[in-house]
Design the sequence.
């Protein structure tokens, strides 16, 4: 699956694809959201989860290294080696 195919799905479809095909990578908290990062092979995906409401608010896929910046403080290069 590529980023274009992923983004064609609605929020529920993208979340389901993450659960089936994604590899958990990291998470961060921002306001009321827990943002969970997954490696999807040739792109990354974030799932924005509102724990208080038990609701997925947003799901996005991206390739941009700029979007990984919020995780750089916690990601170790050893975690990325396969």
Sequence:
């Amino acid at each position: 699956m590529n980023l274009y195919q992923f983004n064609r799905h609605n929020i529920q479809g993208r979340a389901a694809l993450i659960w089936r095909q994604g590899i958990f990578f990291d998470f961060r908290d921002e306001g009321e959201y827990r943002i969970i990062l997954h490696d999807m092979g040739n792109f990354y995906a974030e799932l924005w989860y509102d724990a208080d409401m038990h609701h997925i608010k947003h799901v996005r896929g991206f390739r941009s290294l700029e979007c990984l910046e919020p995780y750089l403080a916690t990601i170790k290069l050893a975690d990325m080696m396969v």
